[in-house]
Amino acid sequence: MPYDAAKAKEFDKKTIKRSVVDNPAVHDKSGKWIMTGRAEFAADHFTGHKYFGVAKLATVMHAKIKSVDFSEALKIPGVIDVVTVDEVPTWSDHVLWYGKEVAGVIADNWYTAIRATEAIKVEYDVLPAMFDPDVAIAEDGKDGTANVGLIDGTNLHQRTAVVRGGGAAEGFKNVDWDFTFEYPWTTSYAHNELEAHQSIGWWIGDEAYLYTGTQDPYSTRTSVAPQFGLPAHKCHVYSRFNCGGFGGKTDDWGSYAALAMSKKVGGYPVLFKNTRYSNVLTRQRSFSIKSKIRLGGTKDGKITALDAVFYANEGANTAAPVGDCIFGLQKTWNIPHADIKCIGVLTNAPKRYYWRDVADPPGGYNTESALEKCAYKLGMNPLDFRLKNVNPCDVQPPAAEGGWYGAHPWGSFVIKELLEATAEWSDYRKKFHLPATKKVKDIYPNEFKEYADWYHGIALTAHLDSHGGSFAAARGGMLKANADGTFQVITGSARGTAGGTTVCCTTVAEVLGARDEDVLLGDWANTDTGLNPGVQASSSHTISISSAFYNAAMEMKYKMTVMALNNAAMKKVGATKDDLEFANSTVYFHKGKADEVAIPFASLGLGTNTAASAGGADGTGSSVQNDLQKLLGQRAGGAWKSKFNEKGEEYIKKGDKVLANGQSGACLELAIDPETGVTEFLNYFLVVDTGCTMFKQGALREIGAATELIHSQGYYFGDVYDEETGADISTIYTEAQFPTYMDMDFSTHHFADYQSEDASGTFGCHGIAEPSLTNFCTVALATFNAIGVWVDCHKGGFTPDRVLEALDRGIGADYKALMEA
Amino acid sequence: MKDFKHAVATSFDEAATLLADGKSAVIAGGTDLIYGMKGMHSPNLADTVIDLKRIPDASYIKEENGVLKIGALTTLTEIAENETVLKKYTVLAEAAKAVASPELRNMGTIGGNICQKPRCIYYRNEHDAFPCFRKHSDGKCYAITGVCRYHSVFGGLGGCFAVCPSDTAPALVALGAKIVTTKKTWEAADFFGLDQKKFNGENINWIDADEVVKEIQVPALASGAKSTYKKYAFRKAIDFPLVSAAVIVNGSKATVALGGVYNTPKLFTDVDASDAAAAGEFCFAKAKAMKSAQVDNNSNAYKIQIGKVLVKRAITELK
Questions:
Q1: ipTM score here?
Q2: pLDDT tens-digit map of A651-668
Q3: Residue A638 lies in a domain
């Protein structure tokens, strides 16, 4: 069933405000630039002469570098110099994974530098490697070879534990049912930008300059400057675009190398640039997860006890926030007695990080699968089971649970509402059936004829993401008006400029009635003229900063209204503010056609002194507001508040604490060919709480892009390593198989925003974050609902080979076994 | 990227002469050769790249005396969209259209498609990270001790389990096409070495190093015969066949050439088409799945099941 516009419209009247599908008003500047080749990434911009840097990568998993012979490399014409691991921060003579940097070359040509790395000869003292996380767990604590090599004496790096209500043991004393579910290691997914990482570093005196692909120039400065003994203000970071990918631009691997190499050649600019191969090897990817989840409860379906342990394979990354693995489980479900543990497992694999919630899409599947199984076992509709157990709105987290996010205020929490809204929009209750009992033709007698005899599956989940709507600082920036009638958006956030400008610029254009092309990027995201926007938190940031610019645009419009009314022509016709229309970069007077007056913005008398501030409310004493006040010399007194929610209410005041987590509900219908294991999506409904985000089109665009990418990447691929060498042999890079929009029919994807009533993010804006991540688990659950066998996420996605393997047990076999157990 | 010299050939014979040094390779669309050069896949990469694109009159599709003739430099898009090919040699048009993406089909040629390198995650690993014996005489097949998800289900030709990745190869084999080179005219089955007991270095065909494909000749299908090409790949766009079937049905008999399941196309003639499901079973009767040695729950058994269904559905559709 294609998108049902009539139904959506009807639903719009109730809760859903708008769907982005087929909405021509959604425009995307960055997409247009990228598609037409006009997008300039950070390293593209430095057109002057420069050198090129490339790293040589290890071909062993675990070793100490014994010697490096640069002699042949230095003979190659065009090679300027070489660097050792001692000269680049974060590089080391201790190789911990296949692909770690072991030396570098600086040359006058990128290809020359690549060829020169081939000529470098490295001798290793190879050490025992620990690639298999199960072996790392089993061997933990043993002497000698058992250790991965990162921390003396252990491979189990972090242990995060949450104990609630006296712990699980207390809860399990009095339960009517008690089920345990175990899941093997999920795959790891590349959290990878499409552009190979590149940074240009150079020095002027003792000050360092960087053009680099980063989501957060301020954090890059904070991490890079100390490595070179610099105070922060002597490290200047500029960024543009987010490298064409979905996140993953938060580490500064290339920045260190570019600056170190530049220093080696006297400060001359060096472009340190990955090959696609090295990009895959060296960039962070998500944890892989294995878990054991025990649930118990009462006959009416209430979960009263939880005992869960998650292991996270974090590769060779001692800084991995493994505690995030339990975030969704900890905070979404209202379970009075719980023990939840997360243990990080170090291995000789490339560094891994999180993809939110239970770390990655298939990780979230562990939790949701356990809930789904419980529901079936109890004879309950899985939606009813979730509604029975989800936290009610506005629950504050137990202070005792602490954790990385525990210190922050809770923010809005509307999972229950999202479950209900998603169910209503998708007609979940009407379409739901027990596993392996319906063909597509049973649900859709007149549609999807090509899949008529395929099995129909449906699942609905909701998810609280760990991204905040705003982190430690408000979103800030400036909107400047130029004398020629154009406007400049200025912000310190990479998400606030090109790539993320989409929402900021379009918001400004729409509020002011300016032509798109008249709203310019005031600057790159940078640490010199932009304001610290705080920790950049993925797409959450984009939306909240666009809301800030909405306010700035409203302030600008007020100023322009005053200017227009002071215009002689307007005075002559007696215009009032209610007579004015802002459109096409012109102010029109429309009170009677004959009297029409049109004043182009360029004739209004705008100038460089006309500026508006785009600040956000926050509760952490951010310097953004003060910075803005100093810069603009206005708005003294701190009247930082929003008047612009959709109800015209003022609801955020200066000093209000804000942290709104992204949350969403998702319902997936799919069809599975029992002969080939091929799956096709029929309908995917995603409802995301955007709080009081004003520019909903921008929010929905971000949501849509993220969902499509996750589905296409997560559905088809996972990382695969050669376990003997530790080399990545994923087809993502051996076959250039980054999935694209062409791989899925996104006309089956429907997005809608949900405006919760208790918005508490900046200007009422919730972070939309990465709502699609764990809704990936709807694929697992809908697949089970279709064919009654569990398709394991072990080492990959729900590809036909794995579906067929599960089907070897017979249609409905796992469901039958579950119910009989 | 490997350093290389560039030479331009103005005729196929001139290209063949330039190839005689044994350190050169020809380039037409460049969609496979340059990829390998950039990735430094092999120690045997060419020192000189010989451009065929300036050879005149090498791109054409015409019928002469009941034989379809296609110039080696004809693009896959041209073949996929040609009315004659679509109508009379449907399996070839569909196979050409199944290759990669529109951009790659616009660049890639039929000559290049049947001369591309094998498909294997180990063979294709950059910087020759896995020195397999397609590239090194003292190498080994890493699929046996590693991951075999994408590899052959009909055994390893000469010990190599890489598959023939060409979409057009099975179509040409099923059609009984001839391939005209600078040295001789090959039967397609011989060109791809269907009866060979070993592999030919890094090639998926058996032409000499100084031999260049000039033309494809396809005999007309028998009156009443119909054909189709079915392909399965994980991705819907820009992917090589994990399993494919070029199928021609003529009355109660079918000719089936499988792709993506063996080092060469796997040809079955005189298949009983009266029972489509049985035909699928017949074609894969001798297939045997591999189990990856390193990754749990990972095998290539799916190729057999999906292949059977592709054959069954193709025959059902054509009957």
A1: 0.93
A2: 344 334 444 556 788 899
A3: no
